[in-house]
Amino acid sequence: VAQVSPPAAGERHAGTEGGPIRRNPAGNVARPMVQRLPEPQDVAQCLEVGLFDTPPFYSNSTNSFRNTVEGYSDPTGKYDPAIRSLHNLAHLFLNGTGGQTHLSPNDPIFVLLHTFTDAVFDEWLRRYNADVTTFPLENAPIGHNRQYNMVPFWPPVTNIEMFVTAPDNLGYTYEVQWPSRNLSITEIVTIAVVATLLLVAVIFAAASCLIRARSNMDEANQPLLTDQYQHYDEDYEKMQNPNQSMV
């Protein structure tokens, strides 16, 4: 278990109600699922979820990017109550101050984690060019509808005002090299079949061109006189009276 050293006299620190910041990464043996950090492939799959949110607009929504990046669904967007991924998984992996909702902001890792989560959201907005209609207008939990104000910002800022990319709204960009998604077995098989068909088509076209070229070459090399005319010519020379017709 790691913990931040107590501060010297007069220094301030981000302590918790139970003492200094605590971390025990992957130490929750009772929940093997949270003994790892999210992987790049998880982020790639999350960015494939095309809908921002789906009813009931809560932690049990499925095929919802909002719920997926938050970590209540698996990285592909499928809701599973036993799954914790991405943002939530990173918190739970810390297994200490950072894993407790009301205390996690005290751990400096909180800033890094949420900055990256914001970057994922910004990339999603950029890829899908999402408009305001994808943000729930009503029936979302309190504070999460389109026109609700974001707490605790002042002056008030609505959710929809922040539903734009960072360069357009905040004046900066995120420098992230986003991972590519691994191909599924179906996609691999499809690509292999298409590649095979293209290869067969190329071979067939090349063979056809070669056969046609050889045929044209053979025609060009044909003698002006055939064997039949050559035979007539030899018989003509043997005749005693060349003026006599051979027909």
UniProtKB/TrEMBL annotation:
Which protein is depicted? 5,6-dihydroxyindole-2-carboxylic acid oxidase
Q: Where in the cell is it found?
A: Melanosome membrane
Q: Where is the Tyrosinase copper-binding domain?
A: 107-118
- Where does this chain mainly localize? membrane
Q: Which family does the UniProt entry place this protein in? A: Belongs to the tyrosinase family.
Listed pathway(s): Pigment biosynthesis; melanin biosynthesis
- What GO cellular component is one of the record's annotations? melanosome membrane
UniProt KW keywords: Copper, Disulfide bond, Glycoprotein, Melanin biosynthesis, Membrane, Metal-binding, Monooxygenase, Oxidoreductase, Signal, Transmembrane, Transmembrane helix, Zinc
Q: SUPFAM superfamilies of this UniProt entry?
A: Di-copper centre-containing domain
Q: Which GO BP terms sit in this record? A: melanin biosynthetic process; melanocyte differentiation; melanosome organization
Native organism is Ailuropoda melanoleuca (Giant panda)
Q: Does the keyword Membrane apply?
A: yes
* InterPro entries assigned to the protein according to its UniProt record, in alphabetical order: Di-copper_centre_dom_sf (IPR008922), Tyrosinase/Hemocyanin (IPR050316), Tyrosinase_Cu-bd (IPR002227)
Reactions performed catalytically: 2 5,6-dihydroxyindole-2-carboxylate + O2 = 2 indole-5,6-quinone-2-carboxylate + 2 H2O
Q: Where are the transmembrane segments?
A: 188-211
Please give the Gene Ontology molecular function terms for this protein: metal ion binding; monooxygenase activity
Q: Which cofactors are reported in the record for this sequence? A: Cu(2+); Zn(2+)
Q: Using the UniProt annotation, give all residue ranges assigned to the region (Disordered).
A: 1-27
- Encoded by which gene? TYRP1
Name the lineage: Eukaryota, Metazoa, Chordata, Craniata, Vertebrata
Which Gene3D superfamilies does the record match to this protein? Di-copper center containing domain from catechol oxidase
